[in-house]
Design a protein that fits this description.
By secondary structure, the chain is mainly alpha-helical. The chain has helices spanning 2-26, 39-57, 68-93, 95-107, 125-140, 144-157, 166-208, 214-256; strands spanning 113-116, 121-124. It has one domain (2-256). It is elongated and about 90 Å long.
Length: 257
């Protein structure tokens, strides 16, 4: 009887709290939480991870089981923390969509809107391509292990039962958003430079030869130069984004430690 009671206290209760935080984070995180992953697959992965990580996280779980109102408050706080961690990873992933939108605008493809499965919304065709490449690289380079490790280490930053500091969470979120926009702009800098040089050249050509229809020549040349630029900088740009993504998650883990 004592063994069964201790199991209910330390096992089922810990599993429930761990599942709330991990399940919430996995539904938002890039790769696993994307819209093209079926909901039942996400649920099974969350259940499996919660079952495996429950013994590791069990020392952080309150013992014994608190009263029912406190239990509901614990579940709500675990949901908020999981939502916050998943959103941080998703914001860092959104840098690729920002870069894709800037690239599409500078290359004349801004009106070519397609469905971006990574964000589950309409976006630029370049942003959808970069987002899909980014998801593939996350799994190829095993960075999804860093996301799972971040969930485990989050119990140091956000212990179970403590009310999260909303001010610190808002500050970290604002830093992640600003860093995401900066990374996206840095990825798109070569395309901005190419477009600027093209516009300057076409402006000079229209002055030297007013009879030439500059606007008819500009758009196909702009698209062609953008595709050539993408061909040359794609590998270096994605490696740059992977480094920044890893640095962002490592900073989060360092803060947690």
């Amino acid at each position: 009887m004592e063994t069964l009671e201790s199991f209910l206290v330390s096992g089922v209760f810990a599993f429930m709290l761990v599942f709330v935080r991990i399940g919430t984070a996995l539904t938002i995180m890039p790769g696993i939480g994307d819209s093209f992953v079926p909901q039942n697959i996400r649920l099974f992965m969350a259940l499996g991870l919660a079952l495996v990580l429950s013994p590791v996280i069990q020392p952080f779980v309150p013992d014994p089981i608190p009263a029912l109102p406190v239990l509901f408050s614990l579940i709500l706080m675990e949901f908020v923390i999981g939502l916050f961690i998943g959103t941080i990873a998703r914001v860092l992933m959104a840098a690729l969509d920002v870069a894709g939108m800037i690239i599409s605008t500078t290359s004349g493809l801004a009106n070519a809107q397609v469905f971006n499965p990574s964000l589950a919304s309409q976006g630029s065709i370049t942003g959808a391509f970069l987002s899909m490449v980014g998801v593939v690289l996350l799994f190829v380079t095993n960075l999804h292990h860093l996301l799972i490790y971040g969930l485990v280490e989050s119990y140091h930053m956000f212990p179970v039962g403590d009310v999260p500091d909303s001010g610190s969470m808002a500050e970290m979120m604002s830093r992640a958003v600003s860093a995401s926009f900066m990374i996206g702009f840095q990825l798109a800098i070569p395309f901005v430079i190419v477009a600027m040089l093209l516009y300057i050249g076409m402006g000079v050509l229209s002055r030297l030869m007013p009879q030439v229809q500059v606007f008819i020549l500009t758009l196909p040349m702009q698209i062609m130069l953008s595709m050539i630029t993408l061909f040359f900088i794609l590998s270096a740009g994605m490696l740059f984004w992977l480094t920044k993504f890893e640095d962002g998650m490592t900073f989060f883990l360092t803060s947690a430690g």
